[in-house]
Amino acid sequence: EAGVTQFPSHSVIEKGQTVTLRCDPISGHDNLYWYRRVMGKEIKFLLHFVKESKQDESGMPNNRFLAERTGGTYSTLKVQPAELEDSGVYFCASSQLLAGVGEQFFGPGTRLTVL
Amino acid sequence: QQQVKQSPQSLIVQKGGISIINCAYENTAFDYFPWYQQFPGKGPALLIAIRPDVSEKKEGRFTISFNKSAKQFSLHIMDSQPGDSATYFCAASMLTSNTGKLIFGQGTTLQVKP
To answer: pLDDT of A1-21, one tens digit each?
Structure first.
């Protein structure tokens, strides 16, 4: 069974540019999460989809970040325009069940560097 | 405000030794405490988890100790091996919430020397 995949694995962009990150969850997983780890700090929750609906977007930093999950399958996270503080590793995770009982499976992450 | 605090930031242990990583939390509504293990270039993977109705859970060489009154929990790796070298994250979640979001600690980089 394929795990959670993320694309690209690395992205280097300049301040002010736009970047779109993609996540493909494990097939059949209704729950999809985005997290971010800024260098040396904790992994922080960004948002949670249940199928195509945003269940919790309390962790989104600001309106430069836009997440979508069309058709309840893959998800994209767009940053527009990117700022220096957006640099970090963006993880996507998926799970079959809710609320911690269902294990969250993480992708390898996308390392974003904003210059 | 960081809701889950993890220490130490880094740890070096000799092969065969015991690795201990500690976490403390603030929110008493947390009721699920997983530990994740991350190898370079990979995403975090669930290692072991505990709920607050037990004080200890053991899976092979990995043990979680949980102290509800102190709001602390720790990971013990017995007979540490070089293959255990990785970054470890503790986390907390609320099973009663309508989202399974995880609140992570800052991570501990463990190096086990041969």
So the answer is: 689 999 999 999 999 999 999
Give DSSP secondary structure letters for B15-57.
TTS-EEEEEEE--TT--BEEEEEE-TTS--EEEEEE-TT-SEE
Amino acid at A22: R
Which residue of A lies nearest to B87 if distances are taken between CA atoms? A40
Interchain proximity A106–B45, CB inside 8 Å: yes
Exposure on the CB side of residue A66, measured as CA atoms within 13 A: 9
Phi, psi of B43 (to 5 degrees): -85, 165
Write the burial class of residue B9 (CB in 10 Å: 0-12 exposed, 13-18 middle, 19+ buried).
Answer: exposed
CA distance B58 to chain A (A): 18
Residue of chain A whose Cα is closest to the Cα of B88: A42
The predicted-structure confidence for B40-75, as pLDDT tens digits, reads as follows 999 999 999 999 889 999 999 999 999 999 999 999
